[in-house]
Amino acid sequence: MPDASTTSGTGAATRRDELLAIAAELFAERGFKNTTVRDIADAAGILSGSLYHHFDSKESMVDEILSTFQAALFASYEEVLVSDSDARAKVERMVRLSFEAIDQHHSAVAIFQNDAGYLSAYPRFGYLRDRSTQFREVWMTLLSQGVKEGVLRKDLDATLVYRFIRDTVWVAVRWYRPGGTLSADEVANQYLSILLDGIAS
Amino acid sequence: MPDASTTSGTGAATRRDELLAIAAELFAERGFKNTTVRDIADAAGILSGSLYHHFDSKESMVDEILSTFQAALFASYEEVLVSDSDARAKVERMVRLSFEAIDQHHSAVAIFQNDAGYLSAYPRFGYLRDRSTQFREVWMTLLSQGVKEGVLRKDLDATLVYRFIRDTVWVAVRWYRPGGTLSADEVANQYLSILLDGIAS
DNA sequence: GTCTATACGGTGATAGAC
DNA sequence: GTCTATCACCGTATAGAC
Q1: Which positions in chain B touch A94 (Cβ < 8 Å)?
Q2: What are the DSSP calls for B75-121, one per residue?
Q3: Which nucleotide does the CA of B18 lie closest to, via C1'?
Q4: Roughly what angle, to the nearest 10 degrees, separates helices B158-170 and A184-197?
């Protein structure tokens, strides 16, 4: 992260940021391995060699995309977790935050969903694993609090519930399109309703 | 599909089937694009060129893995759908079938989850799209029957419920391991319980 | 059924001119 | 900040010997 110039005061992005956004979209659509530096350069209207004026490598591009996103996401989680709401309210807000992330950082979430598993095997992307662990611990604590408070069922396997929530929420990035007919908030409402009360009548 | 020799009467697999199983595991672990023919050959203890005695191309390997799996899966769906159970029972059995598929065809499901999106853009893999459409229609019909019969909630967006079920069930392939502590049936029980009744108490 | 040897296109990346 | 030119490597796939 050479400089903190994501957006200037007028909302104009630097060339570097434009290129990173273009790369993120392509990575999200086709996968990281499946996107060539020439694809990125073509989409940006330049030649592949010119990309290396801005970035060390293709790998450092995903790295920056993912690490920036993760930092922002966990910062927003932190706000919820330190609040003094009850467990059920926290669960709801955490789920809503996730759908907001899908809405606002769509490419980064998609890349994370598709390529993180493979990438996190490399030392450079070890922080992805660390974040996953942190994420699981936060949720497991939250869920057991909910059971203790009597607002969540106690007859379910806690780890399974955690995976259920994690997967169902994030996998929505596969079909959710920002700016589509359904807003992130509407999706979150329905998902929470299903998650909390089920689909049976 | 040159010959129908998946397993002989004694349970012995042909060399060709062995190689296909090895390829499937690697594709599932690392992704199709990310697995080289040399990786497959190495894992099989032969040289990459030798693979081409058995298969036309790397692409034809995934093709066979995916198409074989899809055919088997939809055949088992058919049995459930033509039965005269009520909608709720059918939903339950469809979900169970999916977890059984994850258990018994783990690699194929994983490949489908990770690479089908990208592959189905190619004409050769158009059948993946067709199957997805078929799958959606079957589920949408089933869900609207459930609402009509009064066993499923009618206040939810039907398409959203469909996506929720589809994603929830199949994404479990990411963490479920055949032969692990949890059986496919135990997972199905808990998932159905959450799906139908929710996690709130 | 596997090996040796090899063709050939694509890929990430570099050096220096403009 | 971008282009030209180019490299070394890795990828799939082939032909024919054993």
Answers
A1: none
A2: HHHHHHHHS---HHHHHHHHHHHHHHHHHHSHHHHHHHHHHHHHHTT
A3: C1
A4: 70
Q: What is the C-alpha to C-alpha distance for residues A21 and A43, in angstroms, rounded to an integer? A: 11
CA distance B32 to A198: 36
Q: What is the pTM of this model?
A: 0.95
pLDDT > 50? residue A196: yes
d(CA A48, CA B177): 41
B200–A197 CB contact, under 8 Å: yes
Whether A200 and B200 lie within 8 Å, measured CB to CB: no
Q: Which residues of chain B have pLDDT under 50?
A: 1-8
Considering only CA atoms, which of A163, A188, A165 is closest in space to residue A176? A188
CB B141 within 8 A of CB B59: no
The reply to whether residue A199 touches residue B196, judged by beta carbons under 8 angstroms, is: yes
> Per residue in A64-91, pLDDT tens?
999 999 999 999 999 999 999 999 999 9
Q: Residue A10: what pLDDT?
A: 59
**Dist CA A149 CA A128 (whole Å):** 32
What pLDDT shows up at residue A25?
98
Tell me how far apart the alpha carbons of residues B99 and B186 are, in angstroms, rounded to a whole number.
Answer: 10
Beta bridge partners of B200: A152
Which residue from B118, B156, B191 is facing A194, i.e. has the nearest CB?
B156
Rounded to whole angstroms, the Cα distance separating A55 from A51 reads 6
Tell me which residue of B42, B62, B43 sits closest to B114, measured CA to CA. Answer: B62
Helix ranges (DSSP H) in B105-199:
106-119, 126-148, 158-170, 184-197
Q: How many CA atoms lie within 13 A of A8 on its CB side?
A: 7
Integer Cα distance of B55 and B70 in angstroms: 20
Which long-range contacts (C-beta less than 8 Å, at least 24 apart) are formed by B71-79? B72/B105, B73/B97, B73/B101, B73/B105, B74/B131, B74/B134, B76/B101, B77/B138
